[in-house]
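Hi all, long-time lurker, first post. I run a small reading group and we've been trying to get comfortable going from sequence to structure in the token notation. Rather than ask abstract questions, I figured I'd post a concrete chain and ask someone more experienced to write out its structure so we can walk through it together at our next meeting. Sequence below, copied exactly:
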Amino acid sequence: MHKLFVKDVEHVAWLAKLTLTPAEVRKFQKQLVKVLDYIGQLDKVNTANIKPTSQTTGLENVFREDRINPQEMLTFNDYFTVKQIIKKNE
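-- Answer (accepted) --
Happy to help. Here is the structure in token form:
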């Protein structure tokens, strides 16, 4: 079981810009301990022969050649506009 102190919960709340009552701190302390314990189960998984990966879907970035067209720059409420490169059915 993980240990999570009141100061830890208060720090997380401060990072998230949340104001918590003492009752909420105690409530979230219990919940966060459960989350950490659940995630801690991953430590038990044998990954010795597993290759590290950053993604598994096989998707690749879509690139196109950069071309500057001054007539198309800053044309919509002073925002840059670009042509769509990803279609809805992709």
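A couple of things your group might point at:
Residues 22-40 form the longest helix (19 residues).
The two ends are 45 Å apart (CA to CA).
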